[in-house]
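HUMAN: Can I see a protein plus its fold?

ASSISTANT:
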Amino acid sequence: MLGLSDEVRVVVELWSTADAKLELTDEEAETFFEPSGPAPTHFDDRRGFHRFYLRSKGILKRGDTTLGVYTTDISRQGIGFLSPWQLLPKERLSLLMPNGTEYEFRISRCLRVRPGCYACGALFTATPARRPAN
């Protein structure tokens, strides 16, 4: 069995020390990681690019605060994720993924799903950067 890469270990360590983490309910945890591939489109979809499921943990950086989030989908223009905190439109944040990619983006929407869970959408503001391996 292959060991975890350094990038995955970094996210696991940051997840355990995050200021707040999203906790999935038992129902959500059962089905959250199942979808993969292209996301379905809707008849009135006005998106510029097709979305693809991206189900993963991530570390959201908001100033000096780190939040443990779950990504839901990604496209060429943006990313969707579930956050434990409400985020405000036009906030600029960055998201570290387990593969070492760090995305910079601007929040475009944030809707409350349930207490302690917000569905957020964001538009990329810069080209994703890979963190150098230690």
The first strand starts at residue 20 and ends at 21. Strands lie at 20-21, 52-62, 65-74, 78-83, 92-96, 101-114, 117-124, 129-130. The first helix runs from residue 6 to 17. The mean pLDDT is 84.
